[in-house]
Write a structure and sequence with these properties.
By secondary structure, the protein is of the alpha+beta class. The protein is built from 15 helices and 25 strands. The protein has 5 domains: 1-133, Rossmann fold, CATH 3.40.50; 134-277, GAF domain (Beta-Lactamase, 2-Layer Sandwich); 280-382, Beta-Lactamase, CATH 3.30.450.20; 388-457, Helix Hairpins, CATH 1.10.287; 465-631, Heat Shock Protein 90 (2-Layer Sandwich), CATH 3.30.565.10.
Length: 632
Amino acid sequence: MNAAPSERPVVLVLATDAHISADLPDDATARSAEPNEVDEESLRDVDLAVVSDAAGLARVRDGRESLPVVALVDDPAGDVATAPTVDAVSTTTADVAATVRWLLARDGSVRSDPSRPPSRVERLNAGATRLASVRSVEETHRAAIAVADEVFPPHHCLVGVRDGKWIEPIAASAEVPIEDCNRVRVGSGAAGTVAVTGEPVVEPNPNAESPYDTVLTLPVGDDTVFQLVTDDPDGFSEADRRLAGLLASHVEETLDRIRADEALRSERDRLLALFSNVPDPAVAYDYVDGEPVVHRVNDAFEETFGYDAEAVGGESLDDYIVPVEDGAVEEAIDLNERLQRGENVRREVTRKTADGLRHFILHVIPIRLDAENASGYAIYTDVTDRREREATLREQNERLDEFASIVSHDLRNPLGVAQGYVELASDTGDTAHLPKAGEALGRMGELVDDLLSLARQGRSVGETERASIAALARDAWASVDTGGAELVVEGDVTLDADPARTRELFENVFRNSVEHGPTDGRAEPGESVELGSAGGRPTTVDDGCAAEGLTVRVGEASPRSDGDGGTGFFVEDDGCGLPEETERVFDTGFTTDEDGTGLGLAISERIAEAHGWEARAVTGESGGARFEFRTS
């Protein structure tokens, strides 16, 4: 210190609390200043500084690095409290006076009344403040010895820790070499007994060769003992025992705090490792003004959604991954309201990812259930592939149902007819019945071929290429028994298509036109031409059939008046037109022809869907059937 012994010590307060100066010792001169008001000159006659923040500490360190410093802070484990240039820490203004007096006494600076050093209670209080700032068990043991040396100068002290069946010496006063301290077995000797009973023990030193007469042993929690030894023949006074008990309590509280902090850190590290390594995208969020603001994301989130932690940190999660279509925004608003009420939410959602829209099972866990929340965790489990598999399975099941219906009904009828005619020919020996059986078997062959087409290819196509619709239509026309019908190609359109399957589409539409074309005789005006039955009911089209022949036109479909639908083509005939149940013409098994399979147009529609085209049936200009196929 710089002042003469007869002068009062000067304490400089660089803290935000203006009342600190009033709490300082009466035998000290207090000064208050802002950090920017202090320079090296003003620090020359100062004996001790009290700081409350990094700015004050930096000013003192730059002006006089060796000046003793007391840190008055809320967090004894913070950066200011643990700085190397800080000599002591106080967490309340009430502790400042005792801490300052202890530091001044330690450095010989209480000059107004040298005969009044700080009391042992004041030294213990200052030591308790020091213990509040330590961060490890080993540091606690060393700090306990240092405080004990301040509070009990005539005595020496030792800290022992239980390790299995032994009490191992860990730290001792400087005058007591730790290597000279023997370990003792748990249950024997003063230290071993206290470790078992948890009760303090005062007894004469059993070691006759030791210079110490009396040993005071106190428990510190379940696994630590604290010992004081003295060479005073009178042993330990009642005040000694009381202060030693208080010191042991402070050390125990410090150890409990450190272990609790270590447990919390360990648990935090485990949770962080789990969060980081979970295979599904995960987000830790905090609600700010009703928005889920990103606190942390894991690696899987970055990979799936294409945003790194730096990009989305501090931002609203919904702004990045919630799509604007299909009501997702309204769904997210409802989700946020439920989460803030403390509900545990699990639902399927659609989110924007680096690969486009995908489907997830979203499981959101608030920090506190059944209470208003501001934080939580969200985990996204991708179920897009599963949904696609389920959709494929549903389609397969639908086709199985269709096949079962066709097999059970449409195949059974011609099978029964063929069987009947064969039995009749067998019974009568008249082979004239066999052609009828052959016709029935031929119908069965058509059904089987169509069923195989549905089963093998369904709604899938192979490699696509730029293809001329006019050329494909002509190829398909040549492979269909069209009788006297005529094909007229009106222009051309080029589309990305699987040529083989597109020809199959044309073949089925052409075959439908031919099968439902005009009859051999001309229908008189006003007469109805019966087209067959649909579901057991006769279906007729009035004045709808051409008198002779059939013309089928193919060309580019003009834009629709409603603006819906893209580029495409049409197939239109001047035949008998569509049935009243127009919406059913693409249904599997629906037909108005007694000899039809009801599968041709269904196959055409599925080929169109496989290409991403829309299939539509409307009435043509001449009253015949018109089928339009357009890109979506």
